[in-house]
From TrEMBL:
One of its GO terms (biological process) is proteolysis. InterPro entries: Aspartic_peptidase_A1 (IPR001461), Pepsin-like_dom (IPR034164), PEPTIDASE_A1 (IPR033121), Peptidase_aspartic_dom_sf (IPR021109). The keyword Transmembrane helix applies. Residues 1-25 form the signal peptide. Belongs to the peptidase A1 family. Keywords: Hydrolase, Membrane, Protease, Signal, Transmembrane, Transmembrane helix. The lineage of its organism: Eukaryota, Fungi, Dikarya, Basidiomycota, Agaricomycotina. The active site is at D78, D271. This is Acid protease. Pfam families: Asp. One of its GO terms (molecular function) is aspartic-type endopeptidase activity. It comes from the Eukaryota. Residues 437-463 are annotated as: Disordered. It comes from Trametes coccinea (strain BRFM310) (Pycnoporus coccineus).
Amino acid sequence: MVVFSFTPLAGRLFSLLFLSNAVFARPARSTVETQGAVLGRSDAPVPPDSLGLVSSGTDSLYFTNITLGGLQLMVQLDTGSSDLVVNLRGRQLDVNNSTNIHVKAQYVEGEADGVVAFADLQLGNVTISNQAFLNVTDLTNFNTLGDGILGVATTNGSTVFHTLINSLGEDTAAKLGQSPMQSLFTQRPDLASTFDLQLGRSNAVGDIVPSTFLVGEHDKNFEQVVNAPQLPSFSGAHWSAPMDHMTLNGQNFTFNSTILVPPGKAAAALDTGFPFPLIPAAAVDNIYSSIPGAMRNPQDDLGWIVPCNASTNVSFVFAGQDFFVHPLDLTIPTVTQVAASDGSMHNSTICLNTFHGYTEMPGEFAGFTLILGDAFLRNVYASFNLATGAGPFVQMVSTTPDLSAAITEFQTKRSADLATLPPVLDPATFIAMTQANAGSPQTPSSASQIADSAATPTQSAGPEISNGAAQLTVGIHGVLLGAALLPLVFFM
Ligand SMILES: *[C@@H]1O[C@H](CO)[C@@H](O)[C@H](O)[C@H]1NC(C)=O
Ligand SMILES: *[C@@H]1O[C@H](CO)[C@@H](O)[C@H](O)[C@H]1NC(C)=O
Ligand SMILES: *[C@@H]1O[C@H](CO)[C@@H](O)[C@H](O)[C@H]1NC(C)=O
Ligand SMILES: *[C@@H]1O[C@H](CO)[C@@H](O)[C@H](O)[C@H]1NC(C)=O
Ligand SMILES: *[C@@H]1O[C@H](CO)[C@@H](O)[C@H](O)[C@H]1NC(C)=O
Ligand SMILES: *[C@@H]1O[C@H](CO)[C@@H](O)[C@H](O)[C@H]1NC(C)=O
Ligand SMILES: *[C@@H]1O[C@H](CO)[C@@H](O)[C@H](O)[C@H]1NC(C)=O
Ligand SMILES: *[C@@H]1O[C@H](CO)[C@@H](O)[C@H](O)[C@H]1NC(C)=O
Ligand SMILES: *[C@@H]1O[C@H](CO)[C@@H](O)[C@H](O)[C@H]1NC(C)=O
Ligand SMILES: *[C@@H]1O[C@H](CO)[C@@H](O)[C@H](O)[C@H]1NC(C)=O
Ligand SMILES: *[C@@H]1O[C@H](CO)[C@@H](O)[C@H](O)[C@H]1NC(C)=O
């Protein structure tokens, strides 16, 4: 059974408040006229042809608009799956064909049942004709904010394709059942077979960096991406790359190899469907224990509570190149209620780890050592190449090349963010208060235990709260078809 990972629920595109140019090492952008609007505030214009990508809430999941059979839909962009899955909720569209071929798309969290249909799919000004998609009839444990999921991985990972082989035969499936991106480049040989993503960063105050989603071209400010090392993507269902190691304050941390990658490398999925990366528990402990004042979350074996203004120097190394993690991406401010000694409840802000630990990978990620989700991906401009020939590969340029500048920016932006939130508690005080008050609410969990599907209620520090809006899902959610189940965290 093919399994896909898919992007989690609440998407977030980039919303960044002006990242300084120093941080991005690129000149001020000049022009605008975005075809796909960028949600939220963005002072750095995205490239004119960007298809539009926005995050839901505080950098949770990333969404883009598509037009399917004339109907505009907002779908989650997922580099960890290969099918277009849409929940029409009764809306009609112009189909080219409908079938009663049943498909069950499984994700790390939940599954979508439906039937295969075909319609013209527009991404910005590009039209893919007669694209196969899953018309959802039934959702199980599936909770997405948008209208569905656009899986942008290769046909090899497509559940629709594999189902069509069984029903219509290989030749017809190969003609009609390609994944959206593969259909696009098959139909448009005039275009370079690439799509580029830069996930934006936001905080409660607004956008810091906008998101970019380009098809067949590169952002003028990142054209050097064509010269970056070609990292072979070794798994059809998930965009991925072999990783050298992690560095922590200049020290190497080496991961175990698996059969998916050459000896000495670690198999890393690059999955926009995971707001929070999933890495070995030992690596999580390594990262967060290096932050002075950080403490283990007493109610989450794999989680950490970290002083909100503190950070550490982490990079992931691909083909000998460092990709630093911006300190803003290492921890997430989270609002929770704490009981004071008189029993009264108070909203407080604490900061939790964004790199989550696992003791066992979700099944569909067998052979992977890391799932580098959005908290990592915001630090790269990535070009995904569906080249035929040698096979798909990824090229990446760092968007956090200057760690000193990022640390300076962290201090400013994090302070501004915290100023809009309830009082901050340092980890020791928070833990002492929660332990002194039996019966107080649970410590928010970092949602890292895959087997534990219970959602842990906490509050997000995202803009939704300051706006008084209702509910934001910031969980790890990983997925549409076939991904393993990860718990959601609802920040309400
Ligand atoms: C999608 O379309 C809606 C409605 O036209 C618009 O408000 C939103 O900004 C668009 N989102 C993106 C990511 O372009
Ligand atoms: C699919 O449907 C659209 C809209 O009805 C139409 O314009 C297009 O020609 C059809 N494509 C095929 C291959 O029939
Ligand atoms: C429509 O789908 C059916 C399978 O349900 C297939 O037999 C038929 O050939 C398709 N028609 C076209 C025009 O693709
Ligand atoms: C989309 O439109 C832009 C500007 O109008 C153009 O530069 C670009 O090449 C077009 N993209 C495609 C794939 O046609
Ligand atoms: C999607 O499925 C529903 C339920 O089976 C059906 O009523 C609807 O016409 C289908 N829509 C398309 C576009 O195939
Ligand atoms: C697709 O999968 C098959 C078998 O799993 C493999 O041989 C082939 O190289 C893959 N193709 C791509 C483009 O990943
Ligand atoms: C880390 O690994 C790289 C490449 O394997 C090596 O060149 C470098 O010397 C190592 N650094 C340390 C501090 O061990
Ligand atoms: C590597 O494998 C060994 C043996 O299975 C295990 O003890 C160790 O924790 C693993 N290291 C990492 C970083 O996963
Ligand atoms: C964080 O804030 C605390 C309390 O205000 C202060 O003592 C500490 O030095 C700050 N740490 C950093 C790294 O700025
Ligand atoms: C905590 O914050 C929530 C959301 O803003 C608010 O509804 C609630 O009243 C606050 N609780 C307290 C005790 O201040
Ligand atoms: C972290 O990186 C900054 C910027 O390069 C550097 O000034 C600082 O000394 C580093 N900290 C550690 C503990 O290596």
